[in-house]
Specification:
11 helices; transmembrane helix; MetI-like_sf; 79% helix; MetI-like fold; 0% strand; MetI-like
């Protein structure tokens, strides 16, 4: 088979024609998922912390319940989670393959992950600042938005960066169900067709993409910290 590989490998000049559309599909998937993640995971993380004994509205029952929900999405390897959610995906979108099929499992995993990252970031906010807000007559929701989120912003940006990278990895795994993107291209061409050119190109692109996102996130965190 290795002797045949050079005969079926995609010529390097043709690689961009395959790679750029795949990059666009990955970017679309990650952008949609991260929008859901921020809108749901951020508030969920705030609730997890603020219903804990250290939070603004301690409530043991609520804290245990919300924490359990968040842990549920983080307990399973993504491939197992993706398979387990197939009936839900089928019910919601009417399909178990393609772009839509990847959205629900990626969103579930991403929301759970970002909720915990948000909780950890908010936990680092000094309690004194919250007490000052309470003493000044600010409501709890005002303190969450005006003090907790503002002071935790560097940690939230760092968590957002980690989450984006995780979603890129998950989108590559979701290529197994035909969701498109770089992972799908790597599986279909690089693995099934033994196209080493495409496989190498996909690997290099994924590495470059992750490095760029991490670099950008680190710069943003430093800018917000100083």
């Amino acid at each position: 088979m290795s002797a045949l590989a050079p005969l079926i490998a995609t010529p390097w000049p043709d690689v961009p024609d395959l790679l750029l559309p795949a990059l666009g599909e990955t970017a679309r998937t990650v952008a949609v998922v991260m929008t859901i993640v921020v809108l749901l995971g951020g508030p969920l993380g705030l609730l997890i912390f603020n219903t804990s004994p250290l939070g603004l509205t301690p409530n043991r029952a609520a804290h245990v319940t919300i924490s359990w929900i968040a842990n549920l999405g983080r307990s399973l390897p993504f491939l197992v989670l993706m398979a387990a959610i197939i009936p839900v995906t089928k019910l919601v979108f009417g399909t178990t393959i393609g772009f839509k099929a990847a959205l629900i499992p990626m969103a579930v995993a991403g929301v759970a992950f970002f909720a915990r990252l948000t909780e950890n970031a908010v936990r680092e906010v000094p309690r004194d600042l919250l007490d000052v807000g309470l003493a000044g007559g600010s409501g709890r929701w005002q303190i969450m938005a005006g003090i907790q989120l503002r002071e935790a912003l560097p940690g939230l940006v760092a968590g957002f960066t980690l989450n984006v990278i995780a979603m890129i990895e998950y989108s590559a795994i979701a290529g197994a169900i035909g969701s498109g993107g770089i992972g799908y291209l790597a599986v279909n061409y690089g693995y099934r067709r033994f196209d080493n050119t495409i496989m190498i190109a996909c690997i290099v692109l994924l590495i470059a993409l992750v490095q760029l996102i991490q670099f950008t996130g680190d710069r943003a965190v430093r800018a917000l910290t100083h």
